[in-house]
Each structure stands twice: as C-alpha cells, then as structure tokens.
Design a protein that fits this description.
single chain; alpha+beta; Phosphoenolpyruvate Carboxykinase, domain 3; 2 domains; 41% strand; globular
Length: 292
C-alpha cells in the first residue's frame, strides 16, 4: 500500500492481523502532479507489549486535559536522527498504545500497536494522533513545514489565513467558499517550495475526508477578530515571527530547527504578508480581492 503526503511517499506493509480501513487517508493513495522527493518504508505490526529503547530521551509531551476532545496522551523521545512517538489511548475500542520509531536517516518508520483485543485490528494507518505527529517530521525531512492555517484558491490566486485556534481560520474558509473560491484546507497546511515557488498542500484530516490539493501562494493573512475590516501590509522580522508562531514545530535537533527557520524566513521574504482584522461576513472577501 502507498500513501502520498505532498512530496513524501509512504510505502506501507503490515502484519496479517491488521486491516487498513482508510478514513482520513482515503484519497491520498495517488500522488498529485508533483514528484515525490522522499520515500519512507513503513511497517505496521501488533505486539502484546513493548519495551521503549533505553537510549531515547523524552523531548515533548501532549498530556490531555479533556478526555473527550483529546482521548489520549502522546510523547516524543529522540536519539540523534531517530524519534519515538508513544501514544496512550484512554477508551479506544481497539488500541491500547502505539509506538512508532521514525528513522529519518534511513527513511524507515516502524509502528508497533498494542491492541486491546486479540481479534482483527481495523485502523487507518494515519490514525489520530499518529498521523498528525508524523507529518511534522516528514515535512521537515523535505524542507517543508506545517502551519495552522486555512487556505483558498480564488481566481488562480492562493491565499492562506493563519491564526491561533478559535480566531477565524475555518470561518474565513467558509466565507471564501460562499463567494466561489476553492478551499484547500480549513485548519492545517503543508507549505513547501517547489521549483522556486511556494505551494500549500492539504493533509489528511481527523474529522472529515478531503481530496488532495495544492496551490501556489500569493498572499498570507494574519487573522484577528475586530468590529471592522482592516488590512495592513507587514514585512520584516515582525511579519516573519508572526507567521512562525503559528507553525507546528516539535524540533530539538539543531539541523532540524535550522532547516525549519531557514524555510520559514525564505517563505516570508517571498510572499506578501498582511495583518487582517475582520468581521465574519463576506465583505472581507471583497476587501481582499480589491488588493489585486
């Protein structure tokens, strides 16, 4: 089985007691009109128990504060170019734990699943949050990055709207859709430079299926809610750091962090950036179109 995430190809094998049922990954079995830059060989297996490697050091953790919205804890440990993603599920009917070792140097991902039952395991290979956590490192491996943003294509123009959660990314996407634009994604985008131009790609989402899409980017808008629409051009370090603050980044290694910084700074120097205060109606679409 093969999955294609922007410019990364996953070549996947599994043990016989696992069945893949594609939900978020449903439409990602064929590449877009872009050649894969890197292929990772992924194996999925089950085990009764798992002993994490002793030479891995804990880097990051995501501990749930709401078992309904986030019914799991996750942890990222590392040893040089090898990463271990550990996930503890609270009430998943099939899975107790997942351990995924990502070897970036050798392009390998080994996923070990601790099931709750002995019967056939039916999952999407990018089961949440495994897929979301892997995406950060897969993107970085091809000099791309992830950002919390919605993106639209409007009359061949590509716009992204970035902000912290709850500020209006999804609202903005819906407003543009009402005015006839194509929504690339409403929450998370993969950003990558290809042949000198910066592109946005959508990625498999948790709550819905979406066909893969890509579009070159002409403008970035930093969102904030306001009683009236106001658009202000930004540039320099302030604009770059505002964009970077909304990127998804779990990096500790110097070369990964440097690669991420280099790409974000190049992106923000090449694409027009605006601060965008807006009210939640389609007048903001007209205002942005008037920018030309």
């Amino acid at each position: 089985m093969e999955l294609y995430l922007a410019t990364v190809k996953l070549s996947i094998s599994k043990s016989s007691d696992i069945t893949f049922k594609l939900l978020p990954s449903k439409y990602y079995t064929r590449p877009l009109n872009v050649n894969p830059q890197r292929t990772f060989h992924c194996s999925y297996n089950t085990a009764a128990s798992y002993g994490p490697p002793a030479d891995f050091n804990l880097l990051f953790s995501g501990v749930s504060t709401d078992s309904i919205q986030m019914p799991y804890n996750w942890y990222i440990s590392a040893n040089t170019d090898r990463y271990l993603i550990s996930i503890e599920f609270f009430e998943d009917p099939q899975v107790k734990c997942i351990y995924a070792t990502l070897d970036i140097t050798n392009n390998r991902i080994e996923v070990t699943i601790i099931p709750k039952r002995a019967d056939q395991l039916v999952i999407d290979p990018l089961i949440q949050p495994l897929g979301s956590l892997l995406l950060v490192y897969l993107a970085n491996s091809v000099s791309a990055f992830l950002i919390h943003a919605s993106g639209v294509c409007d009359f061949k123009q590509g716009y992204i709207f970035t902000a912290v959660s709850g500020t209006g990314k999804s609202t903005m996407a819906k407003l543009w859709q009402q005015k006839g634009a194509q929504v690339i994604n409403d929450d998370r985008l993969w950003i990558q430079k290809i042949e000198g131009d910066w592109y946005m790609f959508n990625t498999p989402m948790v709550w819905y299926t979406q066909k893969p899409a890509m579009k070159s980017i002409q403008k970035v808008f930093l969102l904030k809610q306001a009683p009236a629409n106001k658009i202000r051009f930004m540039q320099g370090v302030s604009a770059s750091m505002r964009v970077m603050s909304n990127c998804i980044q779990h990096f500790h290694q110097e070369k990964m962090t440097a690669r991420h910084l280099e790409q974000v700074l190049d992106f923000t120097s090449k694409v027009a950036i605006y601060e965008c205060a807006f009210t939640p109606d389609t007048s903001i679409v007209d205002a942005i179109r008037d920018l030309g």
